[in-house]
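Subject: sequence -> structure tokens, single chain

Hey, anyone have a minute? Need the predicted structure for the following. Not urgent.
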Amino acid sequence: MKKTLLPLLLAFVLLLAGCVKTKSDVAEKPSSDSKSGGNASEQVEIEVLGMSSGEADLNIVRDQLVKNGFKVKLNIQPDYGSYKAQQDAGNFDVALSSWTTVTGNPDYAVRSLFKSGGDYSIMADPEIDKLIDKASTQTAKDYVKTYKELEQRLVFDKAYIAPLYISLKTQAINKDVLNPKSVRLSKSRSMVWETIDFNDAAKRVTEPFILSQAMPTLTSLDPIKGNDGSINMINTNMYVRLINLTDDDKITADGSLSRNYSIADGNSEYYFLLRDDINFAKITDKKAVDTDERVGADDVIFSLDRAKDKNSVPDHRTYSLHEHIKTAEVVTDLSALEKAKQSGSDKSVREALEKGLDTPISTLVADKTQASNKEGKYQVVKVTTTEPFPQVLNYLAHQSAGIVSKKQVESINTYDVASFDVTKDIPYGDQNTVTEGDKFNNTLYASGPYILSYKNDYEAIFHKNPGYMKGTEHEAKISNIKLRFIKDIDSSISALRNGEIYVLYSVPENKQDVVESDSKLKLQSMESNGVTYLLFNTKNREVAKSEDLRKAVLYSINQDEIISYYQGKKIKAVSTVSPIVKTGNELKADPDKVKEFLKK
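Reply:
Had a minute. Here:
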């Protein structure tokens, strides 16, 4: 009898704990809380907004707030559109929010979110504005102190946000098929395809590497026209950039269009020494063909000029990432490299650009067809920023800074931007041009290791760029890639376990045990740049007026309890810069402070 009753009692207790009280429930049946020292009529009500996908976090936050004397109303929306509508209408006190810094630099982690007038900012604080701008002009060794001050004001002094945790970034690999050492997991950068290899090298040409993603509709194959999960990984591998990020977010020239780079004294001028062994690829009869057109300085300048100009294309979605670029130009005067000094050094920029070269620079050329690195003939591009801004390098490593063919894009984009007609004008990178059917007309020119041949509702097929760093360690290993579109995570896990796909990018915490229990699979995991936090309403609620009320919520948050719930698969956070800059700040739950601020 006891064995039968115990599970039922437990289930009943859990059911009660998981129930969300409606407004009428609270009004009709005021509850009391011994820790708060009063009944519901004396308690402060907090409305917490979130999506159903974050219900576990919402329940944890609710329980922590209730334990500290609050009366909590949950406003749970089914999808992002409904959530955003509620947020825009101001129907919340705190909103469950998240942010991933895909560029690996702290400026991206704060500028859009917390600067007055930022793309996603709902606050205006002149002191925070000053700190964001100050940090953006500093190098990594100097900006730690500034970001510490920023966190102090953002979180502890003003309580504009309440941090919850940093997530882990994960991917699962079929180690029986792929060499696990060849499959990189990068903190910010999307999956790197060119390094991936089979355990059996003989399969490189005969079999495709198969992976999956959820979204079959691609925003655009023009790198500046999208910044979302449908195309980030694709465009990262289709277009080379001036610079790259290492797996742990350090700036590197490896695998980029540059052999070397240098920051000049003053942190406003950036020099890039270009490679001469990358050609654009195109698709002919659904096969990748070397165009014999070299990727050069004219393409770089064209690509960056259009990246920073919000009017260069209709529906430009990434110009704010590149608004700090003032000019991009080719350098032909070798003495200019000798006169310019490296940032923080008395050595010349030329010395930095020549480091490790087989042949030192003898001549700088404007015409990309005249470049010959073996003969010492190079192209150098100089990027000048609107103000000292070392973090411009991180933005140049983003997929939106991918280098496109000036010749090809200009030949396709002949429409007038101001009068663009979506019903008749076909821009470069339109997904319809690579989708099988009567509109198929693939005009892509890829500067990266792979090019998209065609897609349908079920998969997209990519081929190796035959003109990409041939004979070097960066030449793509596998000739063909098949990207399957699988919307459901359970179906993706099943496909991975059945050998239908070889890699699953981003494995949820509640599915990781399934992966780890399968002997043929390997789970890779590392700290991500994704932070989940509570964002306070700063417009039309009591929390907008009262710092004390916001601080009472802040000190109710117990990150140890949250991490325990996720079985140690989350990491403590203070702000959105926490994964990138270790400031030494820490949020500690403090019920006594909660009572103190509530009394005020």
